[in-house]
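Translate sequence into structure tokens.
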Amino acid sequence: MDSLISLFTEKLGLDRNHFETFYGELKTKDLKKKEHLICEGSVCNFIGLVSSGTLRSYVRNNEEEFNNDFYFENDFVSAYTSFLTQMPTNCNIEALTNSTMHYISYEKLNKLIAQDNAFLKLAKYISDTYFIRKCKRETSFLKHSAAERLEALSSLYPGIEQRVSQYHIASYLGVKPESLSRIKLLTYINK
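Result follows.
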């Protein structure tokens, strides 16, 4: 929770009372490895903060899965478009390891905002975080090679290769697992 306190007091300029009010509305959810936090077709009515563990977000096209995000400690986790629109999501979020998250419901967050518009700073921060992550990913696919995308992923999530299988990393990068092995080998040789 130290990172959440820091977010409230240092990044957002809110006071400890705001944090205490928000914290009082949080619920905790434990997920087992391979358990889904949300499935395609459901409406996402929460924003969570990963306390421990690793999760992935993916979409399906027929029987194939395509990873589009990963969540680690202190990351916000949500099917955010569904959260904003309160319409069914087209993505799935699955725990890759046993994980714990703290979350607030759509209704409770909006109630806090209605009571004190200072909570809009938190809502804006979460929206900005999601927007920037999505823009960086989109730009990466348009401008960078798979090797450059791998390097960017490794700098964004140091140690990801020890936490996430090569299969999932390859899917996120938009390559086949065997191509990822080749990319890593070539990168190693060229260093």
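Note: The chain has two domains: 2-142, 144-191.
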